[in-house]
Known about the structure:
The chain is α/β, with parallel strands linked by helices.
Amino acid sequence: MxxxxxxxxxxxxxxxxxxADEALWQELRNGxxxxxxxxxxxxxxxxxDPPGFRLEECPTQRNLSPAGREEARxxxxxxxxxxxxxxxxxxxxxxRCQDTARLAFGRVDETSPAxxxxxxxxxxxxxxxxxxxxxxxxxxxxxxAWVTHGSTIxxxxxxxxxxxxxxVVRVRPDGxxxxxxxxxxx
Length: 186
């Protein structure tokens, strides 16, 4: 009896999550003014970047793994297949973010230091969050993808996404992002 009740509760939770996911996809398909905060796709193992890395030299950084490159492609295909229109793609200057953006969307419209990696750079967090909020206030009703880092998304909205996960936000009139939902990695 208890096992049946637990199974029923699990099935209801799964059905509820699927309905919530579909509602978010529907909102994205039909809405304007969303920001897709995308964490870069899966990288070579490790955390942060090697000592002495340089932003202008991709081989000195931790980059996408072959699986991550495929993951980024699948993410872009999923958004396109679901009819999500993205007007502008903004990327962190790190190569793994730019590569994720190009593989998912076919382009990077702007590279912004405000979206830079905050891992191990807590001193920059407050300044970057102010810069990101200023950028958010200026977006208007465009749908924008920001390809960045988990630490940066967490500093902005308090969510720690998995690699290739998308945190969907809408911006309140005061420039504060409101999380609408999350799209899991493909």
